Amino acid sequence: MRVHVVSDVHGNSTALARAGDGADALVCLGDLVLFLDYADHSRGIFPELFGVEKADLIVELRTARRFAEARELARSLWHGMDRDAAIEGAVRKQYAELFAAFPAPTYATYGNVDIPKLWPEFARQGTTVLDGERAEIGGLVFGFVGGGLPSPMRTPHEVPEEEYAAKVAALGDVDVLCSHIPPDVPELCYDTVARRFERGSSALLDAIRATSPRYALFGHVHQPLARRMRIGATECVNVGHFASTGTPWVLEW
Questions:
Q1: What is the DSSP letter of 123?
Q2: Pick from 45, 164, 38, 175: nearest CA to 110
Q3: What are the beta bridge partners of residue 155?
Q4: Rounded to whole angstroms, how far apart are CA atoms 42 and 85?
Q5: Which residues, by range, are in coiled-coil regions (predicted)?
Q6: Which residue(s) pair with 11 in the sheet?
Q7: Largest distance between two CA atoms of the chain
Q8: With contact defined as beta carbons under 8 Å apart, do 236 and 229 qualify?
Q9: pTM for the whole thing?
């Protein structure tokens, strides 16, 4: 059995269309949407709406951890606009391309920049969306937990810690624990390029210690200090920043 796993697709529909080649199934751990490309500030919803110069500025502020100033800039840019309508219209365009690129079967969960309420419009037959739910793939039980936790970035799909923990608990024992964000381990949460810690989940870490799945798979941190480590019997793996690599992580058994 061969499963390909991707995360942090961020608009890369071309590579996504090839991600399932040679695999029995594709697993996607979220962040389909591209709001702003930190490597190329001309790409994404933000520069489409406000231009590259403003994108340069907001990246500079966020990278310097001047989050209050970044939020104030964003508020000023959105003034007089229907923010929700503008974002949803742009996201729908991206989702139309991205969901069309999914092979069958695909098992997917949300990232912190996704908009879950829109997914039912685009998920075709052969794409199974799971959040706080399990699926059997090739005889192994996969558990899925979508979204992120509250952060200074205030991305669209951040859920309260109690709600997130409840989704983790609902999975019970699984062979492969799939989430968008990593367990709360410093080496897995630190981004060496952004030079900051991203939010990891203590509930995921507790579940790994308590139930010892074979694998814990996640993304979210684009350039992690550590891409994999063992926690007890569990192999914890950041499956990679698919938007830049275009290469899925491979799980075979």
A1: -
A2: 164
A3: none
A4: 21
A5: none
A6: none
A7: 54
A8: yes
A9: 0.93
Tokens 């992580």 correspond to what residue? 249
- State the CB neighbour count (10 A cutoff) for residue 251: 24
Separation CA 253–CA 251 (nearest Å): 7
Q: Is the pLDDT of residue 37 over 90?
A: no
- Could you give the residue ranges of the DSSP H alpha helices within 34-132? 45-50, 52-63, 67-78, 83-101, 119-122
Q: How far apart are CA 236 and CA 245, in angstroms?
A: 19
Rg (CA), the chain: 18
Cα–Cα dist 111/242, whole Å: 13
The pLDDT-based confidence of 5 (bands split at 50, 70, 90) is very high
Distance set, CA 56 to CA 66, 73, 80, 176, 221 (Å): 14, 12, 22, 39, 21
**End-to-end CA separation in angstroms for the chain:** 5
Q: Are 7 and 28 in contact (CB under 8 A)?
A: yes
